[in-house]
Amino acid sequence: MRFSVCWSVLTGFFLAVLSAPASQLAIGDLVPVISATDQHGQSFVSTNGFQFILIATEMACAKSANQKLAEQGAGFLDRHHAAYLLDIHTMPGIARFFAFPKMRKYPYRIILVDKAETLAAFPAHSGRVTVVTVSPGCRVEKISFWDPESEPMTVCFQ
């Protein structure tokens, strides 16, 4: 009896620890390496070349961000040393069938992240794009949240 109670408590504790969310990035943390592909199927691996990482985790927010980015034209993200990541791990297959051809028409690169664990450490707020400012040493310098529905693109690069 005593063994089964202890076993139940220990099992519950370990399950709680294992199911706990990953810790969120904080100022000064190393930015994790991100491996994914873009909307054209080209490989992407984050390196020290980026000063800003923009991450859209919700489709409605991503649509607004895509509109703002498209207005800026080709080369905008490159000029700002920025990467734009779109979390697609929850996107159903039928939605991908229609969304991917449209994404290929955008004049900027969209990194399509298809694994939940890839972006698990990055904080997210509903209706906003996470903007991570990266130091030359690949550490988190600043974390902010851009509302593409109501704020100009310049908010991202301050």
Topology:
Elements: H1 2-19, E1 35-38, E2 43-45, E3 52-56, H2 59-72, H3 76-79, E4 82-87, H4 93-103, E5 111-113, E6 129-134, E7 140-146
Parallel strand pairs: 3-4, 4-5
Antiparallel strand pairs: 1-2, 1-5, 3-6, 6-7
By DSSP (H or I, 4+ residues per run), the number of helices equals 4
Radius of gyration: 19 Å
Number of strands: 7
Shape summary: globular
| Average pLDDT number | 83
| Distance between the amino and carboxyl termini | 62 Å
CATH class assignment: Alpha Beta
Largest sheet: 7 strands, mixed
CATH homologous superfamily placement: Glutaredoxin
By secondary-structure content and strand pairing, the structural class works out as alpha/beta
How many domains is the backbone divided into?
1
Explain this structure.
- This protein is an alpha/beta fold.
- The protein has a single domain (24-157), classed as Glutaredoxin.
- The protein is built from four helices and seven strands, in the order αβββααβαβββ.
- The protein has a seven-stranded mixed beta sheet with strand order 2-1-5-4-3-6-7.
- Strand 6 (129-134) and strand 7 form a beta hairpin.
- The chain is globular.
- 22% of the residues are buried.
- Mean pLDDT is 83; it is low at 2-21.
List keywords for this structure.
globular, 7 strands, 30% helix, Glutaredoxin, alpha/beta, 4 helices, seven-stranded mixed β-sheet
Summarize the model shown.
With 158 residues, the chain is of the alpha/beta class. The protein contains four helices and seven strands, in the order αβββααβαβββ.
